[in-house]
């Protein structure tokens, strides 16, 4: 197990992006920007239902070293892929023209231009230690880091593009250019999170409240378990869940499932045509309430008491929303069996990560219990680390 902090890993990634820039482009960058991956403490699949989420930023970051360029294109080197690509203005103008990781970069330029901002041509070097495909928002971290860099390079200040309006642009890059129908949570987390806090986001109004989440003082830690489960049908299943939620809202005559309060749930369920839709709705409505209950407990410093809400969220994702896989269910069961206060899958599902609320000095023991359960089940060994809430997107220098 590794303990991730704000110190070591971040410094290394910053250096790698800076060194990569110098090697590729023969001089120092004008600046270096970073944006984090995230875990979501609670509130899953609620974002595209106009509901509530409570993510916090990880110490893992995507770092962009960049300078403006004289031509009308964007040259981008990615350490992770080992590729250097050139994105032309024509590529930017045609959503989907650039695929793979470059699509997120092109998408951000496209979204900024669509919103009326002049984006300077640039050279970029990108390094990251956000694990890819682990459900920790590596794509949102890339979008947020590139967006923050280009906004600064273009002299588009917070007066013209306030920080609270940036996540929507990053999401538009993903929805409109890359073609993934994700909600607003991941980009909001990567851009708006603060160190030591969880981000309570109302996904309808986009109002946020920074909720103090001082795990260290409480002697607690969040153990993150990367399940290493191969992602199965993620995008198709995600789109299917989203479509069912939208259909259910239409049947119920509400703009979004956010508008069904938990005490109106039994009556709402009676009006739905089939059992699958009823279970999907029950997950969303109860999950929104669990976020509100979690926030209320954190407001009064009762951090340990959020554990049962985390575990109930997992059961709801497993039984009602049906987005878990055996690897994450085993990790949750093993963590709880080893004394975690609560545990749940975090992120979109069908693999990805589990988080567990544990006593800080028991994190190693809980991780060992998960390792053993994986070995007993014949699963690929998981990757475990502890994480404290870190800062959102920022200029490093
Ligand atoms: C993915 C999406 C988010 C959100 C989560 C599930 O991470 O990108 O918008 O819907 O799944 O909570």
How are the elements arranged and paired?
Layout: E1 2-3, H1 8-25, E2 31-40, E3 52-53, E4 55-68, E5 73-78, E6 83-88, H2 89-93, H3 101-114, E7 122-128, H4 138-153, H5 166-178, H6 185-192, E8 197-202, E9 208-212, E10 220-226, H7 234-252, H8 265-270, H9 275-299, H10 307-321, H11 326-337, E11 342-346, E12 353-359, H12 363-377, E13 383-387, E14 394-395
Helix pairs in contact: 3-4, 3-5, 4-5, 4-6, 5-6, 7-9, 9-10, 11-12
The protein binds alpha-D-galactopyranose (GLA).
- What global shape is seen? globular
At the first level of CATH, the class of the largest domain is Alpha Beta
Main β-sheet: number of strands, strand sense, barrel status? Answer: 6 strands, mixed
CATH topology heading of the largest domain: Ribosomal Protein S5, domain 2
User: Largest beta sheet: what is the strand line-up?
Assistant: 6-5-7-4-2-14
Strand content: 15-25%
Mean pLDDT: 96
CATH architecture heading of the largest domain: 2-Layer Sandwich
Number of helices: 12
Distance between the termini: 31 Å
Q: Ranges with pLDDT <50 over ≥5 residues?
A: 4-8
Radius of gyration: 21 Å
């Amino acid at each position: 197990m590794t303990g991730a902090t704000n110190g070591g890993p971040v410094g290394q990634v910053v250096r790698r992006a800076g060194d990569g820039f110098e090697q590729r482009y023969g001089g120092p960058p004008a600046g270096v920007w970073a944006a984090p991956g995230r875990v979501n403490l609670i509130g899953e699949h609620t974002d595209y239902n106009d509901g509530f989420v409570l993510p916090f930023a990880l110490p893992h970051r995507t770092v962009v070293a960049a300078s403006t360029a004289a031509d009308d294109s964007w040259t981008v080197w990615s350490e992770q892929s080992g590729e250097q690509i050139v994105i032309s203005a024509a590529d930017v103008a045609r959503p989907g023209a650039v695929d793979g990781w470059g699509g997120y970069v092109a998408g951000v330029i496209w979204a900024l231009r669509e919103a009326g901002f002049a984006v300077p041509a640039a050279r970029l070097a990108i390094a990251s230690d956000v694990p890819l495909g682990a459900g920790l928002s590596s794509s949102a971290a890339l979008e947020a880091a590139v967006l923050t860099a280009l906004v600064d390079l273009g002299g588009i200040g917070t007066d013209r593009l306030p920080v609270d309006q940036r996540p929507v642009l990053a999401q538009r890059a993903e929805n409109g250019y890359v073609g993934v129908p994700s909600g607003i949570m991941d980009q909001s987390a990567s851009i708006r999170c603060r160190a030591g806090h969880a981000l309570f986001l109302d996904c309808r109004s986009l109002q946020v409240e920074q909720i103090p989440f001082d795990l260290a003082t409480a002697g607690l830690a969040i153990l993150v378990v990367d399940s290493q489960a191969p992602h199965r049908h993620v995008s198709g299943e995600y789109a299917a869940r989203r479509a069912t939620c939208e259909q259910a809202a239409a049947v119920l005559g509400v703009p979004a499932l956010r508008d069904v309060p938990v005490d109106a749930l039994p009556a709402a369920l009676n009006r739905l045509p089939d059992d699958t839709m009823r279970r999907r709705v029950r997950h969303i409505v109860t999950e929104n309430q669990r976020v509100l209950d979690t926030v209320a407990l954190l407001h009064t410093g009762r951090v340990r008491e959020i554990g049962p809400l985390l575990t109930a969220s997992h059961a709801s994702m497993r039984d009602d929303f049906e987005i878990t896989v055996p690897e994450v269910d085993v990790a949750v069961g093993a963590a709880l069996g080893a004394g975690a206060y609560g545990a749940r899958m975090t992120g979109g599902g069908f693999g990805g990560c589990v988080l567990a609320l544990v006593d800080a000095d028991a994190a190693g023991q809980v991780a060992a219990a998960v390792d053993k359960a994986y070995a007993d089940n014949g699963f690929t060994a998981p990757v475990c680390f502890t994480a404290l809430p870190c800062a959102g997107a920022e200029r490093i220098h």
